[in-house]
Amino acid sequence: xxxxxxxxxxxxxxxxxxxxxxxxxxxxxxxxxxxxxxxxxxxxxxxxxxxxxxxxxxxxxxxxxxxxxxxxxxxxxxxxxxxxxxxxxxxxxxxxxxxxxxxxxxxxxxxxxxxxxxxxxxxxxxxxxxxxxxxxxxxxxxxxxxxxxxxxxxxxxxxxxxxxxxxxxxxxxxxxxxxxxxxxxxxxxxxxxxxxxxxxxxxxxxxxxxxxxxxxxxxxxxxxxxxxxxxxxxxxxxxxxxxxxxxxxxxxxxxxxxxxxxxxxxxxxxxxxxxxxxxxxxxxxxxxxxxxxxxxxxxxxxxxxxxxxxxxxxxxxxxxxxxxxxxxxxxxxxxxxxxxxxxxxxxxxxxxxxxxxxxxxxxxxxxxxxxxxxxxxxxxxxxxxxxxxxxxxxxxxxxxxxxxxxxxxxxxxxxxxxxxxxxxxxxxxxxxxxxxxxxxxxxxxxxxxxxxxxxxxxxxxxxxxxxxxxxxxxxxxxxxxxxxxxxxxxxxxxxxxxxxxxxxxxxxxxxxxxxxxxxxxxxxxxxxxxxxxxxxxxxxxxxxxxxxxxxxx
Amino acid sequence: xxxxxxxxxxxxxxxxxxxxxxxxxxxxxxxxxxxxxxxxxxxxxxxxxxxxxxxxxxxxxxxxxxxxxxxxxxxxxxxxxxxxxxxxxxxxxxxxxxxxxxxxxxxxxxxxxxxxxxxxxxxxxxxxxxxxxxxxxxxxxxxxxxxxxxxxxxxxxxxxx
Lengths: 553, 161
Prior knowledge:
heterodimer; A: 553 residues; mainly alpha; B: 161 residues; 5 helices; 0% strand
C-alpha cells in the first residue's frame, strides 16, 4: 500500500507540467526572497490564487517551490549588498557580506546555496521519518485535546510574534472573531453580519489573508517616498561566479555545524510561530558558542554562513511536520498551505497522512525535489535575478496590488472578496502601525473554525468540563499554553529576578504530570527525566543561594 | 489627561468594537437543535477579547503619557509619512468603485498606470514607460486568468471584455 502510494506520488510530482510549475515557483520564491521587504509569506500568499485551477498536488508543489526558493533567495541580497532579503537570512549577512567584500562573493554564495540545500535535505529526511509517527500520536487526540492544541498554537504565537503579549493575544482573538462572522458551520445560523447580506457567508480565507499580510506589507514598503523610487538593491552581478565545489568541500568538512544547525531549524519550525527568522539567529549563536575560534565570527568565516542558511531551510521541514501530522500550521506560510488544502477539499487533521497518503507522499517528494531545483535555478539564473531585484519598489507595488485584486476575485468570482481584501488591507496596515503582530490574527482566522468545531464536539460528547484538564493531551497543551503566556515576562527578566530561576523547573515538573497520566512506558520515563531535570535545576539555584545578576527590587 | 497615550485610545476603540459585537451577538437566532447555540462561541471569544482589551487599557494607563512618541516636524511631516499609503488606498478605492463600469482589464490598467505615475518621479519621460508597464502587466495577468485558468473576470460597460 505504501509503495503504491509512493509510486503514485512520484508519478504526480514528476509530470512535466508539475515540474515546470515547480521551476516557476522556485524562481518566483528566489526573486521574492532576494527583494528586501518582500517576505516569503507574501510570495506564498500571492501564489495561492494561481493554484485554484490546479490539482492539490500541483498547487502544493508550486507553493513548496516558492517557500524553498524564498528561504534561499534571501541570501543573495544579504551577501552581495549587506541587506538581508528576508528576516530568515539576517544572520547570513553577518559573515556572508564580509566574505563577499573580501573578494570571495562566489564562495560566499556557494556556501549559502549549498548549506540551504543540505539543511533542507536533512529536514526533508526528518519530515518523512517523523511526520507519520507524530500523526499516529495525533490520532490519540479527542476534541478536548484538539481544542487545547489550538489554544496552545494561539498563545505561543501571541507570545513569540510581538513585543507586547497583550497585543498579540488581542490580534489572535480578533482572528477568531473574524472567523466567527457569517454562517455558523454547526447550526447553519447567520451571525454577526450586522444586517449585511454579503457577510452572511462570512469572509473567505484568501481575501482576509492577502489584505492583512500582502496589501499592508506593500504599503509599508512604499512609505518612504524616495526609497520607493530607488532600485531595491544596487548590486552588479556580472563578476560573480558561484564556486560550487569549493563550497561543498567546505560544508562537508564542517558537518557537525551543518547537522546541529539543521536540527535547530527543524525543531524551531515545529513550534507554532517560531520560523526561519528565529532559527537562523539561534543556529548562528550556537555555531559561535561551539566554535574554537569565535572571534572569527563576523569577519567572513564559513561557519557563520553554514549555520543560518542550513537552519532557515530546515525550518520549512519542521513547519510541514506540524501541519501534516497535526493539521495545525507551524507558521503563517503553512497556514496558507493549510488554506490551499481546504480549497481543494482536503481537511488537514492527524488522519491526513493516512487518508490522503498519495498527496502526503507527493508533498514529501516535492519538498525534496524543490531543493534540487533551487540549486539548479540559482546556479543558472543568478544574474537574471539580481537584475530583476533592481526594479524600484513602487513598480512592484502597483503591479502586485492589481494582481491581488484579480487573484482574490478568482476564488469565488465575487467582487465582495476584493472589497474584503481592501478593508483587511486597511486593518492590517493600521495594526502594523500600532504595533499589533499580524501572525496571531492570521492563525486565529485559520484556526477559528477548528476550535469551534472541536469545542462543540467536546460538549456534545460530554458536558463534563473537567475533561479539559483530566485528559492527558489536553492537560499537556494547556500547561504549555499557560507557560507560553508567561514566557515573554520570563524572557525579559531572566537572570534578573528570583522567580525566573524557578520558571523552567516549574515548567518541567508541570509537564511531567500529563506525561505520567498518558501511561505506557516511554512517556512516563520522559516524565521522570523531566522531574529529575526540574529538581536538579532547583537544587542548583538553591546551592547558589537563588542569586540573580541584579538584586531583586 | 496626563495618562492618555496612543494605546489608551486604541484600547477604548477596541472596547467599543467589542460592545458592538456583543450587541450583535444578542441578535443571533436561537435554535432548538444543535448541542451548543450559535452565539456561544462568539461570546466566548468576545469575553476573552474584552478581557485582553481591558488589560491593554490598564497597561497603557499605568505606562502613562511619558511614553507617547513625540511627533517630529508637526502634522505635515506626520501626514507626509503616510501620503503614499493614503494615495494607494484612495486609488484602489476608486478602482473598486469603477470596476463595474470599466471592468478588470481597463480598470486594472488605469489603476496601475495612475498608481505608478503618482508614486514615481514626476518626469514626463516616465509616463510612456508607466503606461507600457501597466498594459503589459495587466494584459498578461488578464490573459493568464481568462484563458489559462478560465476565470471570467469582471466585465465593464466600455469594453466588451
